[in-house]
Amino acid sequence: MSDPDDRRRLLESLADEFLRDYPRGARLLAVASPDPKRSAAFAEGLGEVLRGRGIAATVTAQGDRDEDALRTDVVAPSRASGADAVTIVSGITGLLAERVRGLWHFSVWLIDGDEVPHTAATALVDLTDPGHPTRRLADYCAVPPSYLS
């Protein structure tokens, strides 16, 4: 049975951590997984939590944007605005690629089943049981070198 309170508590906890480390300014947050629909749904939930706290938060999809397009279309306008706001970008593994991951203040990697954790993410969230999502702490010493990215 699904428990919306479990999901809400997890989203609140991620928002707490993010806002503790990045309390103001133009902030960028990435939510990524192998499945763009999964990322988009989770990013929307995180956006709702932030907006519920009175924070201007928008969610945009990575779509087919490569690194240059992300910088031009998403990052540059967010930073140039100087607004006290959060831009959440949802997408796939490319959001945490080596040349792109430095764009984000905070990143969330969503895991389902036996998917491999992305070692560059700030937070790992296990959605294997969608009714009871959990925060996963990865032991990076145990991750085979071929999985590091």
Topology record:
Elements: H1 4-21, E1 26-32, H2 36-52, E2 56-61, H3 67-81, E3 85-91, E4 106-111, E5 123-126, E6 134-136
Parallel strand pairs: 1-3, 1-4, 2-3, 4-5
Antiparallel strand pairs: 5-6
Helix pairs in contact: 1-2
Overall description:
This protein has a six-stranded mixed beta sheet with strand order 2-3-1-4-5-6. The model has no long low-confidence stretch (mean pLDDT 90). The chain is globular. It is of the alpha/beta class. Helix 1 packs across helix 2.
Q: Which descriptors apply to this entry?
A:
single chain; 149 residues; alpha/beta; six-stranded mixed beta sheet; 3 helices; 6 strands; globular
Oligomer: single chain
Distance between termini? Answer: 35 Å
Q: Total number of β-strand segments?
A: 6
Q: Main sheet: which strands, in order across?
A: 2-3-1-4-5-6
List SSEs in N-to-C order. Answer: HEHEHEEEE
Beta content: 15-25%
- Roughly what is the average pLDDT, rounded to an integer? 90
pLDDT under 50 segments (min length 5)? none
Using only CA atoms, what is the Rg? 15 Å
Coarse morphology: globular
